[in-house]
Amino acid sequence: MAIRMPRIIQAKKILRRSLSNGSRTPTYKDIPKGYFAIYVGEQKKKRHVVPVSLLSEPMFQDLLHQAEEEFGYNHQMGALTIPCSEDVFTDLASRLGAF
């Protein structure tokens, strides 16, 4: 079993930069410890609170790289924005055990 520490560390850096550049919304207190908020959707963005354990999943890391390419580190919503349809994300998160 290979450990992909560089990808995990890189994913955490992407998330940290993303969250540090956005302004905090009033709902940030609603996020329990060990979770983070993301916005998902192509046109209308919907907020999801997911466990940080997703950061170690290669498929979620691919979504983070897509977010980095599309949005950079400045997210208008104040949290990480994932550039995929909500249905695709919900399916992926369910398979990874986030929901």
The low-confidence parts are: none
Give the structural class. alpha+beta
Enumerate the strands of the largest sheet in spatial order, edge to edge or round the barrel. 2-1-3
Biggest sheet record:
3 strands, mixed
Extended strand count: 3
β-strand percent reads 15-25%
Return the average pLDDT rounded to an integer: 75
The residue fraction in helices comes out at 40-55%
Which oligomeric form is depicted?
single chain
Put simply, the count of helices is 3
How many angstroms does the end-to-end distance come to?
A: 26 Å
Order of helical and strand elements: HEEHEH
Tell me what the structure shows.
By secondary structure, this protein is α+β, with helices and mostly antiparallel strands. The protein has a domain at 28-96. It contains 3 helices and 3 strands. It has helices spanning 5-21, 58-71, 86-95, and strands at residues 35-40, 46-51, 80-82. Strands 2-1-3 form a 3-stranded mixed β-sheet. α1 crosses α2 (58-71). The radius of gyration is 13 Å and the shape is globular. 19% of the residues are buried. The model has no long low-confidence stretch (mean pLDDT 75). InterPro entries: SAUR_fam. It holds the Pfam family Auxin_inducible. Belongs to the ARG7 family.
Core attributes:
99 residues
Write the layout of secondary structure elements.
Layout: H1 5-21, E1 35-40, E2 46-51, H2 58-71, E3 80-82, H3 86-95
Parallel strand pairs: 1-3
Antiparallel strand pairs: 1-2
Helix pairs in contact: 1-2
Write a compact overview of the structure shown.
The chain is an alpha+beta fold and 99 residues long. Helix content is 41%, strand content 15%. Strands 2-1-3 form a three-stranded mixed β-sheet.
